Amino acid sequence: MDDPFIGAFAAFELLSSAILVVDGERRIRYANAAAEDLFEVSVRQLMSLHVCDLFRDGEQLRMSLEEAKSQVFADKRQILEIDRLGREPTQVSATVVTLHGQPWPALIELQEIEQQLKVEREERLLEQAQANRELLRNLAHEVKNPLGGLRGAAQLLEAELGDPALTEYTQVIIQEADRLQTLVDRLLVPHRAPRIVGDVNIHEVCERVRALVLAEYPSGLTIVRDYDAAIPEFRGDKSQLIQVVLNIVRNAAEALAPRIAAGDAEITLRTRVVRQVTLAKQRFRLALELHVLDNGPGVPPELLDRIFHPLVSGRAGGSGLGLTLAQTFVQQHEGIIECDSKPGATDFRILLPLP
Predict the structure, then answer these.
(1) Of 68, 187, 199, 236, which residue has the fewest beta carbons closer than 10 angstroms?
(2) What is the CA radius of gyration of the chain?
(3) How far apart are CA 136 and CA 350, in angstroms?
(4) What are 257-272's pLDDT values in tens digits?
């Protein structure tokens, strides 16, 4: 790593893709941190290898590198397989890029197929969430003004009516207008409430939520702590994060109603640190991973892909805004929420970048 040219590649350390730069003899001259993670060996070890030796089908890559050396193409994509000790062969998408006017003829960008699909899925989720927020904000503003006029007209009409039997109808109008106003206010919460940023200890957030939910369900429900005490504090809005975790845990508790009645309902709050995570196309060296797991019936399969969409609820009488609000608050912290669910095991996974 003492090569004088290595400084030219410093920006590659921020990428989620594995980057290898090779010389004319196909020896690795540079590897970024993501390459260390992909091959599960140190940069120093990688620098002692011929790049083709890393792949099961190295001959295919060797031919591409020879073509790059002759500047036959600008870039070329192919699917390769890598072997890692004790692991199944892993398919990666490899792009060989010709480097013109450089001491090294080629750069190779590698990304696991599964990871690539995950990144694409997260990008779609973020785009959909942004579109949903814009739609809801516009809809809420369009509904808000007519509601005020409707309520005011009902109050004026009620003042003119002498028959109590008729004022019963105006009261229905006023109460329904108030209910819709409350719904509109909830739609606008993420856009109205100012963020109060400070140092956040995620375990204080979890403990606050745990206390609140156990106060609502004093018997039949166990909330298990599985904390990593080494997780550092980070900058964020503590009240927003409490709301995020509370919405998810309350949803879990409501889904666990039959098991609470039976006395064997369980929710687990698990915290871990994960490394080299990509969130919203940005690479983070460390991230907080918070799991909210429950042993309930699971999210209905037809709802699993839509549970973060506004006004989608699997519960009778639910507003369908709790998870939408949670996702919005987490995205404001540059994070994301994912859900994996099957009968007997639901896992909401919150990822937040750490300093």
Answers:
(1) 199
(2) 27
(3) 23
(4) 999 999 999 999 999 9
